[in-house]
Specification:
This protein is about 20% helix and about 35% strand. By secondary structure, it is α/β, with parallel strands linked by helices. The protein has two domains: about 90 residues, Translation factors (Elongation Factor Tu (Ef-tu), domain 3); about 150 residues, Rossmann fold (3-Layer(aba) Sandwich), CATH 3.40.50.80. The protein starts with 9 loop residues before the first strand and ends in an 8-residue tail after the last strand.
Amino acid sequence: MKIENINIPLMISGNLIENINLNDNYYRMRIKAPQIARKAKPGQFVMLSMWKNKDPFLKRPFSFYGIESDSGTFDILYKEIGKGTQIMAKSKAGDLVELIGPLGNGFKIPENTNNIAVVARGIGIAALMPLILESKKRGIAIYAFLSAQTGNLLLCSNEINSISEKVFYTTDDGSKGAKGMVTNFLQNVLKEEVIDVVYVCGSKRLTKHIRNLQRKYNFLAFVSLEEHMACGIGACKGCVHKTNDGYKRVCKEGPIFPVEEVIFDD
């Protein structure tokens, strides 16, 4: 019996190519790991560690921010916030990186898609960037709706401006774009344009707003969920999330889910 197309994650070592401080505590890391880069899809993620003596003990999950299968590299975005990312922030080119991936299920782009909207809060844009680039290759028009606390935390804005049909910004302090909910801009666009699919990553509150708009304007919508993970392969069941079909593992059945399937307890 021949079994095909089984997505078995790889446990390999990669090499750090560069580690760039973008601003404040945010960094972009490029890793050379051809076996993973060739298999990675938009929306998937990798478990990563580069600390000695198993301290911290567990690997950390990071969405693919950039995937370059030809060069055998991929990028991640991260914020220096805990012990693991503090070690990452001090790492240098040539350092060894322990990896498991690619993991999870990626974004779906339905056939005959003409226009998509991507809605992101802060570093949530990282999970959406490979989807944006893939959509651009397919000739799909991209409407981007980005929000953050301050203007300097609107990551990747230059890249997104260059490839999007329209870009809308909101910031909590009004330093770039407008104050308020970025989904207000989305609603205005939905009144005038046919948006086939909306993709969101950033917060539960943001996803709830997308669900409310979905009920009114009847579009497809997918969310990239984030949960604390231990193993990343579905064995420990530590990253389950409530859905209409019971609890599902974000690392295995996700991290991409139809918005209408996800349940957020208030």
